[in-house]
């Protein structure tokens, strides 16, 4: 049996917010909390929030991250905090931290996997890991790739890059009562029943393909041998949109980049234009990659979230969902505004009454058995846990 508390608070003070979350959790679960997953706005003193939560709930394991919009099946907002608490006889949890992502993200992935109990035994038939990472440290793609290789594809992966209320300055992951930068945290989930991960986005190519002829980390220097910003200027002119190099984000939220993988598009959000015409993105784009400027609609985003949820629930087989974690990009929330609530409602309806908790992230992490995997932007990711 698994007992679940999905909670949300709008209180500003970290101690008061933690008291509110803790009271809601204790009223639902009683005195035992096996795992507590926390997402909190950058407005909080994270460690003050986590200390009080630890005192009130005494979770066996607590992890999470800073975020850029927080929600449950029943409430959502920005500048808030949400949490999922679980008490289960059929799920086993452990958590670990790896630092120095900037210096060696592959080594960080190996550190996390080395602690996974499911790699050394077969008591539990189903395995997953919830991953939260400091995406501003970069190298997120190679980090997720290394996690997949080191787990030999035996673990489903879901999660995302920590946020900071769309400031893109400093992001944190949580383990216990501490908050860390340049780090990643993993919650290993071992189960006697199936676990499901679903992925979906509602974007499609608009215009001719581009070649990323020069890149430098998360900065695209040129497309087709010309400054990257020129490609966006030409696209704006061709589609009747306004593009301002000094304030490009409103345009970028509706015109992101899609890397052609040969089996779909892995999305990247442009963030800023530098003086030399290069474009800063939320994650790396490989050199010489074939790239499209992409388009979408509000309805497409909601349908994509529904599709991701359906895939996660279907992966449970005959087991009904007990709870879920849902991640979507901060760019999606900013682009949709109030309509983001409709996307959350679609997830709730598809879960059929099972509660969920999640946050808006700087990139999304997914690896499932039936869909393309990796580090994404503007992509809905759902991790469904069995009842």
Describe this structure in words.
The chain is an alpha+beta fold and about 375 residues long. It folds into 2 domains: about 1-200 and about 300-385, no CATH class; about 205-295, Thrombin, subunit H (Beta Barrel). It contains 9 helices and 27 strands. The chain has helices at about 15-30, 45-55, 105-115, 140-150, 230-240, 250, 300-315, 330-335, 340-350, and strands at about 1-10, 35-40, 60-65, 70, 75, 80-90, 90-100, 125-135, 155-160, 175, 180, 185-190, 195-200, 205, 210-215, 220-225, 225, 255-260, 265-270, 270-275, 280, 290-295, 320-330, 355-360, 365, 375, 380-385. Strands 14, 15, 16, 17, 18, 19, 20, 21 and 22 form a 9-stranded antiparallel β-sheet that branches. A hairpin with a 3-residue loop joins strand 4 and strand 5. The longest helix has 17 residues, at about 300-315. About 55% of the residues are buried. The model has no long low-confidence stretch (mean pLDDT about 95).
SSE map:
Elements: E1 2-9, H1 14-29, E2 35-41, H2 46-57, E3 62-67, E4 70-72, E5 76-77, E6 81-88, E7 91-99, H3 105-114, E8 126-133, H4 140-150, E9 156-161, E10 173-175, E11 178-180, E12 183-191, E13 196-200, E14 204-205, E15 210-216, E16 219-223, E17 226-227, H5 228-239, H6 249-252, E18 257-260, E19 265-268, E20 270-273, E21 279-281, E22 290-295, H7 298-314, E23 321-329, H8 330-336, H9 340-351, E24 356-361, E25 364-367, E26 374-376, E27 380-386
Parallel strand pairs: 2-3, 8-9, 23-24
Antiparallel strand pairs: 1-6, 2-6, 3-10, 4-5, 4-24, 7-12, 8-12, 9-25, 10-11, 13-27, 14-22, 15-16, 15-22, 16-17, 16-21, 18-19, 18-22, 20-21, 23-27, 25-26
Helix pairs in contact: 1-2, 3-4, 7-9
């Amino acid at each position: 049996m698994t007992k679940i508390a999905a909670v949300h608070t709008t209180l500003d003070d970290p101690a008061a917010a933690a008291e509110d979350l803790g009271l809601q959790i204790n009223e639902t679960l009683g005195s035992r909390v096996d795992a507590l997953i926390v997402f909190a706005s950058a407005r909080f003193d994270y460690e003050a929030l986590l200390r009080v939560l630890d005192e009130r709930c005494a979770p066996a394991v607590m992890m999470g991250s800073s975020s850029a919009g927080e929600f449950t099946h029943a409430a959502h907002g920005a500048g808030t905090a949400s949490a999922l608490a679980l008490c289960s006889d059929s799920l086993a949890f452990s958590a670990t931290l790896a630092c120095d992502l900037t210096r060696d993200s592959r080594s960080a992935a190996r550190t996390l996997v080395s602690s996974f109990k499911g790699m050394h035994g077969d008591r539990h038939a189903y395995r997953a890991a919830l991953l939260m990472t400091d995406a501003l440290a970069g190298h997120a793609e190679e980090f997720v790739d290394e996690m997949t290789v080191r787990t030999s594809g035996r673990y489903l992966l879901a999660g995302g890059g920590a946020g900071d209320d769309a400031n893109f300055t400093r992001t944190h992951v949580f383990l216990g009562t501490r908050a860390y930068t340049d780090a990643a945290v993993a919650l290993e989930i071992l189960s006697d029943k199936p676990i499901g991960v679903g992925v979906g986005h509602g974007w499609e190519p608009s215009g001719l393909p581009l070649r990323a002829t020069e890149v430098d980390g998360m900065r695209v220097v040129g497309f087709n041998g010309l400054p990257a910003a020129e490609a966006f200027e030409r696209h704006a002119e061709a589609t009747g949109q306004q593009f301002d190099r000094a304030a490009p984000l409103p345009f970028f939220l509706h015109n992101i980049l899609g890397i052609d993988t040969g089996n779909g598009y892995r999305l990247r959000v442009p963030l800023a234009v530098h003086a030399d015409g290069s474009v800063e993105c939320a994650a790396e784009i490989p050199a010489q990659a074939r790239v499209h400027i992409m388009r979408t609609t509000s309805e497409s985003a909601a349908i994509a979230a529904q599709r991701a949820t359906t895939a996660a629930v279907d992966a449970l087989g005959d087991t009904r969902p007990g709870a879920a974690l849902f991640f979507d990009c901060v760019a999606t929330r900013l682009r949709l505004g109030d309509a983001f609530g409709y996307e959350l409602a679609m997830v709730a309806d598809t879960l059929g009454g099972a509660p969920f908790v999640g946050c808006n992230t700087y990139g999304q992490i997914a690896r499932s058995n039936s869909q393309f995997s990796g580090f994404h932007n503007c992509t809905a990711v759902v991790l469904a846990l069995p009842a």
